[in-house]
Protein: 4-hydroxy-tetrahydrodipicolinate synthase
Amino acid sequence: MKFKWEGVMPAMTTKFTADDSLDLPAFKHNLRAQLNAGVHGVILGGSLGEASTLSQDELQLLLRETVAEVGDSIPVISTIATGSTRNALLFARQARDCGASGLMVLPPMRYKATEREILQFFESIAKETDLPVMIYNNPVDYQIGVSISMFETLLKYDNIQAVKESTRDISNITRIKNEFGDRLKILCGVDTLALESLLMGADGWVAGLVCAFPAETVAIYELVRAGRTTEALELYRWFLPLLELDINPQLVQNIKLAEVATGLGTEHVRLPRLPLSGEERIRVERIIKKAMANKPELPDYKKYLQS
Structure:
């Protein structure tokens, strides 16, 4: 499936039952809400999807079920997050076999690789697959960054097409645009910098709180794209306390609690994660409750949806 690296792409949470099995009905309920809101793609198996606790069989099942549900309406992106190049190549082949439209690839995990090793890792995957690739650049959380000079090397591969920009340096968007133009698409990977990133020229938003608030998230993107910046800013100001739940070590628990509040999920997480408790739970519930009580009426953003 050919597609553009543009728009809102939810980093989907993985739904579990009380007995720790995949909860496919709950997952599909959320997925249909994303589709109805007008998201432009979905990403499976990322950090928010608790990928480190999923087996490859579970991830492949989620991929197949998602592809079957969405058909050709939007792209389905599979995440590769592993410390082994051999496993990365295997996962790329499996993702393609399951019908994935593209890959989001993290640098080698659990090993602080050298620049030469990082380049070889990404290049090996690009050579292995014909799927389009988005590189996840998050030096804050993963202590490994992909520099402009590294991208210059990587962009000799036509299927390396996008970056999930999570450096927290808003000027890096301009830096990338100045250097590569539209050759490297930029998707913001930090919820609290989404509006700023879009205004600076980012092509899309890999979002987290979209899992609980799909319409509000897509509305911000579409309003910016339509030049209705003032309305987007008003909505974003309301949204920001919720978006800050994404830049937190307990982002999975936070967002799943928000999904419960909006009727789009359950609170079940997979060990070693535990549901929020104590003062932190009270704090997060207060943020969600306040946002829900002051939820704005959305403009008719769907008339701007990309075909």
Summary: Residues 7-302 form a domain with the TIM Barrel fold (CATH 3.20.20.70). The first strand starts at residue 7 and ends at 10. The chain has a mean pLDDT of 96.
